[in-house]
Specification:
Chain lengths: 350, 350, 350
């Protein structure tokens, strides 16, 4: 399946990267070693020694450098070999690929495309665990399924009515009516008002209210969602557009989620969720994380089973429904960006 | 390997199919969902939603219908989609394959070929668990081996002398002399008289008797076996043909066995066995099932090892022996029927 | 990867081969059954019955013969079928491949090439567990990696400084200076003097000494290593050549190690190690085996990870260093011998 390369992929949680402890992850089938030095700098290299292809992630941090612990070659953070034990001359081709890497919003972001085009402004505006406005829990799940199937899941919330009837207690509205979908430069925006409702498991209110939820789903596969519960009539007052969050009576939360394609048909799914400080506390955060744990397991069962069916299908074809507008828009965007990347690469090679 | 499609394959035990609880099985590499409705009807569909290929076996029964629990598409038992949530128009191509399915003789039989040719009279006459004449135990085993290797095993009983020397206590006669093999329209018949013998573990007699065993092995892979112990001289009296079972002094039992090719090189083996009411009771049934459990494990060890050897052999060739007459006749029949099916399919496509 | 066929491969420990108990091993992708008869003779055949490819290793020893326990074919130690139950005529092509096999130096050696060229003098002079001069422990490890990667490891001891810094406590000398490497007819010789050193974990001395280690690494993948600790000045006195072991003050040990390519990318690694009787006892042997256990686990972690990286690399290329002289010489020898074998085979086929 197609993925965009000129994009920032989430490689892990920034706070879990201990100094001088190399961390290995495979993204888009490429093994990458990431390490944080005592100086606080973070580096990412191809996880493969030039000598005999041992993984550098089994290596030892030495200052800003990383030493392969098979036969001792020493690598600069830019990928160049600067020491080959017992040998004076180092061949100029002795270097591995270097990846731009940035810690932001509690995530480690790796740029998988042309390093010269790495653009920090393209990092999606996730909400980090240390954000002053939110009280967030977090977690991650490994999938035996392609990242794109998880993206598709997150781009069509009509599945809430069926997959998450138990966990979120989602009602029929997600499947009965399409949400408002708006194309963005690097993704799509999803918006849904549910009028006159007592809400779902995560934001139940004693009397009917208007409930709003919205998320941006951004290249390469990052979901940023918020919403809240508003007085009856708010939906119509703002013409089903974005409400003034200061008028929310409860239920304002934020969730950041990222899907990272790893090797073959596997992916890692990162997520955080929790209430705004004005709408909840650590106890509510823990309740939300409990619901999320159940819901994300429900997704995983369905999506991994879907992957198995696809793998047993000679020529798998999908049949989009009215709810697939977000899926279709996003996947077309991926295809378009990937095509442009290939064209540029061919042009550069001429 | 080649298998016949226009045939009834055993998909499971009828009594284990609970109402409104979809059951998934893969036959000939095709995922199938089977369910029993509150009305008692049994349905079988391709286990793959038209929308995004989620398995319908994770779905929910609603009356006679089955709802995919990913995004809520609702399927009629004939495979047509009758509801796509949030969408008025349903594309006519929104349908999955329907499989004829019948519960009979305690088994669920699925017709894997052209539904228009599904012919109930081709269901092999197995003996169900509720048959008034027999007291039967039952079980099943999953094999990491092709169904055809299990068929081959069941078609050449010379292996009893070696593989089952411990369990059945089979003597040398199975290997020393060929059985009488007769071709049938949809299989082969095996008949063997053992004269003047005290029998095997499952039918030991205190003094020598004539012992008879016979089975039909039928398309696609169903073994139906009976036999008994008769007074000395009976074999010659009936010219080594079929005896009058009313003259049996003991040991009349019946076993039904079915081999179902699942995905790739895996198969499921179903079996029942037990004495005729005139020749035993529940205690004898339990003793026989104990012997069968040991014997079928012996087969599984050998056949799965054989599969491993075959998989490591570049161009595997067999060298048939005198005992392979049943194997050869049956496999030629399979090849012939499969060839005819392909010819008909090509003719129909013109 | 390329391996030499006209060579003796270690198949197992001779003392572990119980009489009349067939033992299965796969070497170079070929399944082999080895058995010891009551007479003490050892035989090795292709582990695959001619009839339906069941493994003979599930068979029964009968005198010098081995009976397939699927349908009872009986095999002579030379591979010929001498009995097919129930059948008078035995086809002349009913035979499996016979492998020359010898128990020596506590190992079972199998000749994988042309049996007519099996030459006992090519068995590497390992030190068996019953050797009167040494007190040896032994063990084995299964690798999820190609044998050749393990050979490469054993041919470049510069890895000791990095991989085994903890276990052997190896200093920088292994990586800082190249060892003396000498080509042999069937391998290479490694020699290293470390002057004025207190040694490594396995031979620590209270005051600085000259330490010597040397090994031959022989086709197909056998390492035979010895060495010892000598008075200061010995290295220079013998011009960094082979010392007189009678002058060793301590630390004389011997280790025999063998790497056997099994199926696909797996290998089995056999090893023994222990002190000369004049330089240690069972307690020292146990201490050495403890160190070896740790060190060989360190190797396994690195080499299996290396294999994984290689498997994920589209066109894996190595970049040899100054320490790769032994690796390069040995692998070129393997390529040359394998090429000659193919040429001879083609000539013989004309």
């Amino acid at each position: 399946m197609t993925y965009v390369r000129n994009a920032w992929y989430v490689a892990g949680w920034a706070q879990e990267l201990k100094a001088d402890t190399p961390f290995a992850i495979t993204i888009l089938g490429e093994r990458i070693v990431i390490w944080r030095t005592a100086s606080g700098a973070i580096h990412a290299l191809e996880d493969r020694c030039v000598h005999r292809l041992a993984p550098l992630s089994l290596g030892r941090c030495e200052g800003e450098r990383l030493r392969c612990m098979y036969h001792g070659l020493l690598f600069d953070p830019d990928g160049r070999v600067v020491e080959m034990p017992g040998q004076d001359r180092i061949p100029p081709q002795a270097r591995v690929r270097h990846y731009p890497v940035i810690a932001r919003h509690s995530w480690l972001w790796v740029w998988m495309g042309d390093p010269a085009r790495a653009d920090e402004s393209l990092i999606p505006p996730a909400v980090g665990l240390d954000h002053p406005d939110y009280i967030l829990g977090h977690g991650q799940l490994d999938y035996a399924a392609e990242a794109r199937l998880i993206n598709d899941n997150l781009l069509d919330f009509s599945h809430l009515t069926f997959v998450h009837a138990n966990s979120f207690g989602a009602g029929p509205q997600f499947a009965e009516t399409p949400a408002r979908i708006t194309p963005l430069d690097r993704g799509i925006r999803y918006e849904r008002w549910t009028e006159n409702s007592i809400g779902t498991a995560s934001r139940r209110s004693p009397e009917p209210m208007d409930s709003f939820m919205t998320y941006d789903f951004l290249i390469p596969g990052v979901l940023l969602m918020t919403g809240g519960v508003f007085p009856l009539g708010t939906a119509r007052e703002c013409d089903f557009g974005t409400p003034d969050y200061d008028r929310a009576v409860s239920g304002v939360t934020f969730t950041s989620q990222a899907v990272t394609p790893m090797a073959g048909k596997t992916a890692r799914y990162f997520f955080s969720w929790g209430p705004h400080r004005s709408h909840g506390d650590a106890a509510l955060r823990d309740m939300l994380m409990g619901i999320a744990g159940q819901a994300f397991d429900e997704d995983k069962v369905m999506i991994e089973a879907q992957q198995q069916v696809i793998d047993m299908t000679p020529d798998p074809q999908v049949m989009p429904t009215v709810h697939d507008r977000g899926v279709t828009l996003f996947n077309r965007l991926v295809e378009k960006l990937a095509r442009e990347e290939r064209t540029e690469m061919l042009a550069a090679a001429e």
